[in-house]
Amino acid sequence: MSSSNLLRGTLILTIGVMLSRLLGLIYVFPFEALVGDRGGALYGYGYVPYTIFISIATMGVPLAVSKFVSKYNALGEYRVGRRLFQSGLLLMSFTGFLSFAILYTIAPMIAPLVISDGGNGNTVEDVTTVIRAVSFALLLVPLMSLIRGFFQGHESMGPTAISQVIEQLVRIIFLLGSCYVVLKVLDGSLVTAISLSTFAAFIGALGGLGVLIWYWFKRKEALDELLQKDKGQLQPSLSDMYKELIMYAAPFVFTGLAMPLFQLIDLFTFNRAMASIGLAAVSEKAYAIFNIWVQKLIIIPVTLATSFSLTLIPAITKSYIERNRKLLRKQLNQTFQVMLFLTLPAVAGMALLAEPVYTTFYGYDKLGSEVLRWYAPAAIFFALFSVTSAILQGINKQRFTVIGLTIGLFVKLIFNYYFITKFATIGAVLATTLGYFVSVAFNLWIIKKYAKYRYRLVFRRTLLMGIFTAIMCIVVSVVVALLEIALHYNGGKFDSIVLVFIGALVGAAAYFYMSYRSELLIYLFGDRFAFLRKKKRADP
C-alpha cells in the first residue's frame, strides 16, 4: 500500500474512532434525563464488570492481530496471518462464550458486593438482572475484535471505522428507544429499562459484526489472491503464533483496563463506605453522579488531548530503535507539551464553570457541580497515564505500565474507603486522583531512566501554560460574573448554556492569544502556525 493510501486509511480509522467516542458521550445526556440517578447507578453496576470481562476476553486482540498480520504480510508470508485468523475465530468464540458463561453465572455473587437490600433504591436482584443482561454482548464482541484486527493488519481501516460507528449507532438507538418505550409508553419498571439498555451492547455488536461480515465477503477474493503470492518459507506452530500474539497484546490489555479497574474498586466499596457514615439514602445518586455522569464530561478533554499527542508515538518508537537520542528527546518534549497545552485550560475551565457545565448537560444539582469541580483536575492524570503508557510501549518498556498501574490501584484501594468516610463522595474522587498520580509519577520516572530523558523544558513550558491558564481563568471569572448579574442567574438551563458558551469562547480566545503572542503555538505545532510568526514579526 502506498504511503498516501496508508495515511488515508489511518485518517479514516481516526475519524471512525472519534465519531464512535463522540456518540458514546452524546447519548448519556438524554439517557440521564430518562432514567435519573438511580437508573444511572444501576447501569454503572452492570457495565463496570462487563468492561473488565470484555477487556480480558478480547485480550487486546484488534491491535495485536493487526501488528501480527502486518508483520507477516510484509515478509510475504500471507498464510501465517490467515492461519492465525482462522484459529483465532475459534479461540475468540470460545473466550467469548466462556466469559459470558462466567459473568452470567457469578452475577448473583457480584451483586451483594455492590449493594445491600433494605434501602429504597436498587436491590441485589436488580443488579443481578442488569449484569446478566449485559453479559450477552460477550458472545460477539471478542469475535468482532479479531475481524477488525485482521482487516487492519491488511491496512484496510474502513471496515473497523464503519463497524465501530454502526455498532454505536445501533446500540444507542436501541438503548434510548427501549428506555423511552418501557418508561414513557408502557409505564414499565426502571429495572426492565436498564436491563434493555445494557442488552443494547449485544444488539450493537450484531450491527457491527454484520458490517464486518459484509466487508469480508466483499473483499475475500482480493484477500485470497494474496495467498497465491505466499512465499511459504515460514510455518510457525499455533503455539508460537499465540505466544507472539500475547506479547503484542499484553500492554494493550492493561492500559485499557486502567479506568475500569479503578471503577471496580468504587463499585465494591462506595455504597458501603457511604452507608457507614449514614449516607446510604443518597449513595446511589452520588455513585451515578461521580462514576457515570461526571466521568463522561471529564473524559472529553482527555480524548481530545491524547488523540493529538499519541499520533507522535510511532515516531518515538522509530527514534528509540535507531538510538537517535536527540530526536527522541525532541519528540517526547512535543508529546508532553501538546497534551498539556490542550488539557490544562480545558480542565481549569471545566472546574471554574462546574455549576453551569453540569447544569447544561444534566440539569442543576449541587452535588454534581461540586463533584465536577473536584474531579476535573484528575483529567490531567488520566491523559498523562495514557500518554506515558504509550511512550513506555514505544521504548519497549511496556511491562512497567503494568507495575505502575498496579501501584496506583493499590493506593486507590488503600485510601478509597477511608477517604469516603471522611469526605463522602469527594473522597472517592481524591482516591482516584491520588492513585493515578502515583501511576503517572512511576511512568515518568521509568521514562526518565530508560529514555535518558530530562523534563526541564517540559516543566518550564508547563509553568508558562499554567500562568496563561491562571490569567484565562481570571478573565473568564470576570466575564461570567458580569453575565450572571445581567442574566439574574439562578441555575437555569438556558442561562447555564449561555454562561458556558460565552465563558468557553472568551477563555479559548484569551488562551490562544497569549499562546500566539509568546509564539508557544509555533513551538508546539510547527508549520501549522508558521504564518503567525511571519505576521508577528511584520508588526512594528
Automatic annotation (TrEMBL):
GO cellular component, one term: plasma membrane
Matching Pfam families: Polysacc_synt (PF01943)
Membrane topology category: Multi-pass membrane protein
TM helices/strands, residue ranges: 12-30, 50-69, 89-115, 127-147, 168-186, 192-217, 245-265, 297-316, 336-354, 374-393, 400-420, 426-446, 467-490, 496-514
Keywords, alphabetical: Cell membrane, Membrane, Transmembrane, Transmembrane helix
Domain of life, per lineage: Bacteria
UniProt-recorded name of the protein: O-antigen/teichoic acid export membrane protein
Location of the protein in the cell: Cell membrane
